[in-house]
């Protein structure tokens, strides 16, 4: 099912606040082989919150996850993420285009803390591979 | 293995291994349970060469390299395009190498790192970039 181009500019509802626990950070660091003790939160850790926002979006579009390829991802930080933060992502669709039967969806997610201050901006492109 | 962070300085390449077990642990830790990172049949059915690493796994390795080179400096920016899949075999591991050069300090006082990320000699990340406060 193609991605609806009229979604461009739409902001989706914020994700549920995500508490950054030392357990979650340690598990993430262990999975990427960074090991313990964890001196600081890995810089790609906010993908956890970003991915939740992307999944909500894909579910709303009834898109099968296995047909999605991550095209690109960038994080720009206002401040480092710390254990104890409570993060929320608000995703906006910034572009939809179709190339060779694939839909390319550009998104920007603002990740804010419990006080509502911007912690980081995550931009992502998702490629929805059409049926072969 | 902290590097000397002067503009133009080469950052010593670091090679990391990725196994299927790493991908399974990463799926749980990140919440990304896309079956193309776990299940060979599904990956091939959607036209991939096999089980591939999460693009974000490879980018996380860039984060590790930056931390090693800079002694854990604050990362202000990190990102890349995922231009080639990193195929992870059922047995053994995929090997990803992160290399780089220190860029010119920006007006904002940040140190950009220009990077090259390869698997078996093939660039797997496009325009990989990181900037640190160091």
Record the SSE blueprint.
The complex is a heterodimer of chains A (132) and B (134).
Chain A: E1 18-19, H1 22-31, H2 47-60, E2 68-77, E3 86-99, E4 102-112, E5 118-128
Antiparallel strand pairs in A: 1-3, 2-5, 3-4, 4-5
Chain B: E1 10-18, H1 20-30, H2 40-45, H3 55-70, E2 74-82, E3 94-102, E4 111-119, E5 122-123, E6 125-133
Antiparallel strand pairs in B: 1-3, 2-6, 3-4, 4-5, 4-6
Pfam families (chain A): FAS1_DH_region
InterPro entries (chain A): FAS1-like_DH_region, HadA-like, HotDog_dom_sf
Domain FAS1-like dehydratase (chain A): 7-121
Protein described:
The complex is a heterodimer of chains A (132) and B (134). Chain A is of the alpha+beta class and 132 residues long. Chain A has a single domain (5-128), classed as Roll (Thiol Ester Dehydrase, Chain A), CATH 3.10.129. Chain A has helices spanning 22-31, 47-60, and strands at 18-19, 68-77, 86-99, 102-112, 118-128. Helices cover 25% and strands 35% of the residues of chain B. Chain B contains three helices and six strands, in the order E-H-H-H-E-E-E-E-E. Classes of the chains: A alpha+beta (132), B alpha+beta (134). The A-B interface holds A 24, 27-28, 30-34, 39-40, 42-44, 47-48, 51-52, 55, 65-77, 80, 123, 125, 129, 132 and B 16, 22, 25-26, 28-36, 42, 45-47, 54-57, 59-61, 63-64, 66-67, 72, 74-82, 126, 129-130. Chain B: InterPro entries: HotDog_dom_sf, MaoC-like_dom. Chain B: This is MaoC/PaaZ C-terminal domain-containing protein.
């Amino acid at each position: 099912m193609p991605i609806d181009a009229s979604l461009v500019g739409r902001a989706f509802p914020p994700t549920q606040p995500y508490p950054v626990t030392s357990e979650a950070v340690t598990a993430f660091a262990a999975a990427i082989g960074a090991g313990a003790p964890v001196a600081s939160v890995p810089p790609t850790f906010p993908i956890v919150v970003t991915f939740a926002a992307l999944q909500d979006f894909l579910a709303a579009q009834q898109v099968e996850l296995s047909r999605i390829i991550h095209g690109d991802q960038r994080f720009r930080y206002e401040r480092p993420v710390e254990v104890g933060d409570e993060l929320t992502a608000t995703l906006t669709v910034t572009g939809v285009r179709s190339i060779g039967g694939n839909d390319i969806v550009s998104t920007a997610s603002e990740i804010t803390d419990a006080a509502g201050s911007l912690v980081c901006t995550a931009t992502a492109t998702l490629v929805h591979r059409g049926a072969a | 293995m902290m590097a000397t962070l002067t503009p133009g300085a080469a950052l010593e390449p670091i090679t990391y291994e990725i196994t299927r077990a790493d991908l399974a642990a990463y799926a749980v830790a990140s919440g990304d349970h896309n079956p193309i990172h776990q299940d060979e049949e599904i990956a091939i059915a959607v036209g991939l060469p096999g089980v591939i690493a999460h693009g974000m796994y490879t980018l996380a390795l860039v984060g590790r390299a930056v931390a090693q080179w800079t002694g854990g400096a604050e990362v202000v920016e990190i990102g890349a395009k995922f231009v080639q899949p990193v195929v992870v075999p059922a047995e053994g591991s995929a090997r990803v190498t992160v290399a780089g050069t220190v860029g010119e300090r920006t007006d904002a006082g940040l140190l950009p790192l220009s990077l090259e990320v390869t698997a078996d000699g093939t660039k797997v990340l496009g325009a990989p970039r990181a900037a640190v406060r160091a």
